[in-house]
Fold Peptide/nickel transport system ATP-binding protein.
Amino acid sequence: MTLLSLSHVTKIYRQGGMLGRRLITAVKDVSFEIGDEPEILSIVGESGSGKSTVAAMILGQAEPTEGELQFAGKTVAIHNRAERTAFMKEVQPVLQNPFEAFNPLKRVDRYLFETASNFSTSGKRPNRREVEKMADTALHHVGLTLEEVKGRFPHELSGGQLQRVAIARALIPEPRLLVADEPVSMVDASLRMAIVNLFGRLKNELGLSIIYITHDLATAYYVSDNIIIMRKGEIVERGRARAVLDDPQHAYSRALKDAVLAAEFGEVG
Ligand SMILES: Nc1ncnc2c1ncn2[C@@H]1O[C@H](COP(=O)(O)OP(=O)(O)OP(=O)(O)O)[C@@H](O)[C@H]1O
C-alpha cells in the first residue's frame, strides 16, 4: 500500500489575516508518493520554494487549499486531540533547531519521557520503568544511551548530541514516517554527514521512510533514494537522487547544483 500520497496539492495563504487581500501560492499542484518500501525522499529548493509548507501539510499542521493528502490510504484530516495523537503515532516531525526546540531550563530526558507517556505503544499509560525503557531504546537507535543524557540540560550536550536526542524523541512512537525539515541547518558541516548517515541507518534498521527537507544538495545526494526539486511552490524536477543530481535537466536544478559546486571549489559566480 502507498504510505503517503499527495495529489494535486495546492496551498494558498492569505496575507494580512482573514480580510487580507494578498494571496500567496506557497505550494502549487504538487503530487508525489512514498510507497511501502522504506525510502528517503529529499525535497530541495531555495528559501521560499514551499518546502516547509509541504512538510506542514504532511504533518497535518496545515490543510491543503486544494488537492488531497493520504496517509496509508486514508485522507489526512485531523479534527481533535485523539485524531492528532493517532496520526502522530505514525508520522513524526524531527525538530529543526534543537537549540530553539528544547527549553534551556528543562532537562532533555523530560522530552523523551513525555513523548513516551503520550505515545505508549501498548495503549496503556506506561509506568516510570517502561517510560525509561522506551527512551533508552530510542536513544540506542541514534547511538546514545539514557545514562548519557539523563538529568542533563540542553547546554550540557553538544549540538550533534542534541540533534540525536531530537531524532530519538521522534522515534519513540515507532512512527512509519519522519519529516525532517532542515534538520542539519544548525549543525556544523562536519556533523551533517553523521546525521544523514543516521537517517540511512534508521531507514534500513527500522524500515522507516524519511522526508528530508534541505537546501543542502551534498547531503541530499548522499543519503536520498529519490529527490524532488521545488521552485516557487512547484516541482520542477524529480527522480532517483543520483540520476537527477548527476545530470539535472531543468535549468533551475542545474543552477542549484552549479551554486553548490562554486561554493565548494571557491569559484566566483
Ligand atoms: N503562514 C503563512 N502565512 C503566509 N504566508 C506564508 C506562510 N507560510 C509560508 N508562507 C509563504 O509561502 C511561501 C513558501 O514558504 P515556505 O516556508 O513553505 O518555503 P521554504 O521553501 O520552506 O522556505 P525556507 O527554506 O526559507 O523555510 C513563502 O512565500 C512564504 O512567505
User: Anything to note?
Assistant: The first strand starts at residue 4 and ends at 15. The pocket of adenosine-5'-triphosphate is lined by residues 13, 15, 24, 26, 45, 47-53 (CB under 6 Å). The CA atoms of residues 65 and 150 lie 43 Å apart.
